[in-house]
Amino acid sequence: MAPALAERVRERLEAHPYKLIATLRRDGSPRVSGIELEFRDDGELVTSSMPGSVKARDLERDGRFALHNTPAPEPEWTGDAKLAGRAEPWAGPRDGAKYFRLELTEVSTVSLNADRTALIVEVWTPDGGVRTFTR
């Protein structure tokens, strides 16, 4: 992924400990849950869940997910980070939790321009690279 975009995404994701992840229920409808992430030294992005949780069962059955940072209140808002992709089971430290490695298929940020009059959207995909839109 593009280093500058990756840095902005990581800053936004690390601003608060909890994020929101959307998974797919057995019937295909969405489920939103709180989640924590770990940026590993080897470049992997991983998450964990309690064994038997519905979030873990969702990801084991269908690894597709969408993830959003926890946004700051309006006056302090500097932007959002969004990730999408597939979660794959990962061995982890074997402490009883269910671990998943996140393979990213789309990464985006949303922020405001300097005048705070327009949205700046940056989107990365493996095939398309980084594209920037102003709205």
What does the average pLDDT come to? 92
Number of domains: 1
Structural class given helices, strands, pairing?
mainly beta
Strand content: over 45%
Put simply, the count of helices is: 2
Overall number of strands:
9
Q: Kindly identify the CATH topology.
A: Pnp Oxidase, Chain A
CATH superfamily: Electron Transport, Fmn-binding Protein, Chain A
Helix content: 10-25%
Shape: globular
Topology of this protein?
Blueprint: H1 3-14, E1 19-24, E2 30-35, E3 37-39, E4 45-49, H2 54-61, E5 64-68, E6 80-90, E7 98-112, E8 119-125, E9 129-134
Antiparallel strand pairs: 1-2, 1-5, 3-4, 4-7, 5-6, 6-7, 7-8, 8-9
State the gist of this model:
With 135 residues, the protein is mainly β. It has helices at 3-14, 54-61, and strands at 19-24, 30-35, 37-39, 45-49, 64-68, 80-90, 98-112, 119-125, 129-134. Strands 1, 2, 3, 4, 5, 6, 7, 8 and 9 form a nine-stranded antiparallel sheet that branches.
